[in-house]
Specification:
The structure is a homodimer.
Chain A lengths: L4 E5 L3 H12 L3 E5 L3 H9 L3 E2 L3 H5 L4 E4 L4 H9 L4 H4 L5 E4 L5 H13 L3 E4 L2 E2 L1 H6 L3 E5 L3 H14 E6 L6 H29 L4 H8 L7 H12 L8 H18 L4 H18 L6 H10 L13
């Protein structure tokens, strides 16, 4: 397959990993991020750092948008970024941000009106899998969008779920996943701090729970951060204030109550309000420890004042 | 090792499985349950159905108590059941009910005063593993309690966690597990009903989520009940009104807030209040569907009136 000209806008850890994977697959990659440092890292990985989203997307066959939410995606494509108009006519947009299904539908409509294909393509897997080209993509869109995006998907993903022929389905699957992921992190943090409060050996709790019916992917993945007292962000608290916020928005709009998800959101908001929004999402455990006067590794009950 | 005389009090699906496993291992097993039918099933499995807890425990080397909670356990041992006083002096009690750690400590103290060893031995794994002699036991107690209980543990469990030399530690581990298990069931039910509300193919949601970061042991185990519309109780809603109730009691007593667990408890209470307390715990999904007017398999939006 002939190499494509691919633009990546948004060069956080996920976007950079995607860009590097595309370079490795032989594609010509240009990228843009509001942070100039991110551009420098892209250049190290063999991509071209452009001065704007439009400059990155100029003539591109495919544009991967890896920003935070629907508003930023819209701004990159059709607002100040003006990236959609810069692409090769008939090119394909892969929209990776977690967003409400209706926003994905709207963006797909605007892309179609601009003569572009649109793949609703939220991603999962974290920075390590992004760097390895081994993401999971929960994708939906027209068959021609899938066809046009295929070389990009092949380069960045280990698993591509093809979930339907309309934008919005991929977004919906991602939202359901994020509801569970967010609740499971909050529950893991409640459970491990309760264990500490009950004077249990929390490393032993990790061993027992990960082999028991109380286990979750998130418990297994995040609790080691608590055991090590390492809250450097692999995934930040404010990812979940955002994603559980989208869940809450959907719930209000659809008159669909989700009390457990709503409560988990409150814990992430408390943790963010306490100054840990950019720290690892396992910081919910630090918040609980701080409130309740518990010692945890790296989170003493009585911090220096 | 010489066969023991073992009594099992409480012959629900867990207790019957334990009794059958003990019979298979060559022990002499007597059992008692308030339900005469359970006694008949014990006899089929090769055990002796006794007319009372004391009659089952008469002269026993070991007594396995598999009832619902601390109050029932105390009643079996020291109350109307009078089983402790009937045992061989120096015998061992294995207490399997989920209970607050302080209740396990108190029961162990009373057993010691009566000249008996006591193993705090909550179990996990469900009816199928109980029948197979493949339970997980989260055990704590004095070394002599472990030693005396060893032939019983060998017969009933695939995994025995030895968690400490005092009663209460096993109970604490089980409570932490139940907090997570209960929250994960409630979250699974919120997520799968949200997926239905978003018009997703919920069988596909199951496939994608079980391979994604939103997975939990409970999502994977319980959501098939929702997909099949089969709410016959593998584990009942009221197990979790009870166990998350214990979590809530501990939280109030210790002044330890657990908002996510508290919210999950409310969902189980609502489901029980709506008449589904003895149905499968995945019935939380039916409750949400009923409240929100969703169709689910086996749970139509508009039931016949």
């Amino acid at each position: 397959m002939a190499p494509l000209s691919v633009a990546v806008v948004g060069l956080g850890s996920m976007g950079l990993g995607i860009a590097a994977s595309l370079v490795r697959a032989g594609h010509a990659v240009a990228g843009f991020d509001v942070s100039p440092e991110a551009g420098a890292r892209l250049a190290e990985a063999g991509g071209r750092a452009a001065a704007s989203a439009a400059a990155a997307a100029a003539g591109a066959d495919a544009l991967v948008v890896v920003v935070v939410n629907a508003a930023q995606t819209a701004d990159v494509l059709f607002g100040t970024g003006a990236a959609a108009a810069a692409m090769r006519p008939g090119g394909v947009i892969l929209s990776c941000a977690t967003m409400a299904p209706k926003d994905a539908v709207e963006l797909a409509g605007r892309a179609g009106a601009a003569g572009l294909a649109y793949l609703d393509a939220p991603i999962s897997g974290g920075a390590v899998k992004a760097a390895a080209g081994a993401l999971t993509v929960m994708a939906s869109g027209a068959p021609q969008a899938f066809a046009a995006a295929r070389p990009v998907l092949d380069a960045i993903a280990a698993t591509v779920y093809e979930l339907g022929d309309k934008a919005g389905v991929g977004a919906s699957f991602k939202i359901v996943n994020q509801l569970l992921a967010g609740v499971h992190i909050a529950a893991a943090c409640e459970a491990i701090t309760l264990a500490r409060r009950l004077d249990l050996d929390i490393a032993k709790v990790y061993e027992v729970i990960t082999a028991s019916a109380g286990n979750s992917w998130m418990f297994e993945n995040r609790i080691p951060h608590v055991l090590e007292g390492d809250y450097s962000p692999r995934s930040a608290v404010d990812i979940f204030t955002k994603d559980l916020g989208i869940v809450a928005d959907i719930g209000r709009e659809a008159k669909f109550p989700m009390p457990v998800a709503a409560t988990a959101l409150q814990l992430f908001l408390m943790t963010s309000a306490a100054g840990m929004g950019r720290d690892d999402d396992a910081s919910v455990a630090r918040l609980i420890a701080r409130v309740t006067g518990l010692d945890l590794p790296g989170a003493p009950a009585a911090p220096e004042s």
